[in-house]
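Protocol step 6 of 9: fold each sequence in the batch and record its structure tokens directly after the sequence line. For illustration, a two-sequence batch is reproduced in full.

Sequence one:
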Amino acid sequence: GGKVVEAALALGMKVVGYDPVLNVESALRLPGDRMQRVNTLDEVWAQCDYVSLHVPYIPDITHHLVNADTLAKSKRNLCILNFARGEIVDGAALKSAWDSGAITGKYVSDFADPYLLGQDKHIVMPHLGASTAEAEDNSAAMAADTVMNYLETGSIVNSVNFPHCELPVAENGYRISIAHKNSTGVLGEITTYLGGKSFNITQQLNVSRGDIAYTVLDLDSDPKDPEDIQSGLFDACDAILSMRFLGHPFDNKFGAPGTFFYTRN
């Protein structure tokens, strides 16, 4: 979105932006003194000749974000650029608006739409962004970095079925990561067991996604027998699915990361 803003300003366009979840980092990348930020989508439809969509597809939230109601509030010459997801635009509603003359502008996307086949105003471009040589190289490097980060620190990012988890590595911590059922009282059972073994938890992170939860804990002392600690945790908490003792991350003190790996059969 930020790059589109810069390009539009370079073309001499007046830029209007709407983002209900704008964070500080993203805001700092925007030329706030040269663009107008509005508080509702209705203001976007009413003011803009060109609308560029930069949203994820979320059922019941962004599904058909562009629909008959929004088109009725738009300028007649509205042009839509959608390189996000095809489901964001209601093709049937757009075709109806074109047929009635309510909308005369074009729709540019890299997604085909069954309702818009043969429509001169629908310009479909190849969806090749992820297939360039640069993208393939970047994707491979990102996948390798993600796996390495998990092996070394227990962090989970960009997972399709596990929660996002990133806990900074403590300077003198001994880390254990635990995958378990997302059930009430599990974290308490884990910390109670470790406390009973005289371990002090210096930092921890517990996150969940659906039925799965993931907990990362840093201990302030070196377990003399990590395998015994993990075996005891399994016995103390039936909800644990698997766990991994990393030792001191990056120190390789207990061998390769994941040396002490337990899973429930």
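Sequence two, same batch, same settings:
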Amino acid sequence: AAPPPAAAAPAVAAPAAGAPAHAGQPAHAGQPTLREYTLAEVGKHCSRGDAWIVVDERVYDVTRFIDAHPGGVGPILNLAGKDCTDVFANYHAARVYDRMLPAYLIGTMAAGEIVVAPHVADFRRIRQELLRRGLFETDSRFYLKMLAWHCTLWLCAMYLSLGCDSCGAHMLGAALMGVFWQQLAGIGHDLGHSGVTHSFRRDHLVGSLLSAFMGLSVGWWKSDHNTHHVVCNAVEHDPNIQHLPMLAITDKVFRRPRFWDTYHRKWVGAVDAPLGDGPR
């Protein structure tokens, strides 16, 4: 069910279903009365230099945190000025609610401002059920099997490439090395989402090492891919579907002569635009 409207401070708004049980709790006892805001007021703070977000009917000014955000700049910029309760719950551990959010708290939402749509309420119930079943927990046996599989691919590729003389063996070794890189990218994806050990530091460290081995930057990947998740398949905002002029993966990109790419901050399309012509 949808959380009740925020009561006047110092009462605390109820957390969304699926968020940690303590989400939305005040930073400390004796917290002063917080100002109430409307969605229209929060919506004005939607830029890199002035970014507010709403989590569990509480308002946070995260402007000074944007550049330090481990998930990249893109997700915050796309959610600035909006209610990001569910996105936040999906991507952050319970400790973030306790240790980090309180430092940015500036107010609460006025009563009745946050209305939970039926499909969002359904999503929260489903997520809660998946959490109850433990389906977000890691099965370490899977990653042990993947480790054996990756080692087999790499060793075979190296043997065929360096230990054999025939052209056919070298070509097969190159193909196996390509498969190895492709498979390793899948593990890198899970590590980038902190989905292997569920420890940001451990997964980030291992992911950084593997990414360096592949010639990639895990920091770049997180900013790019996390933005994709929060604005999935939005032509103007999702960098994972913006491949013009080499590739168009949807006909939506041709419905207008050009569109402003908010991630790369440039015009994209058939019509060129002068530098600096885009929205601020």
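Proceed to step 7 once all outputs are recorded. Observation for sequence two: Residues 1-29 have pLDDT under 50 and may be disordered.
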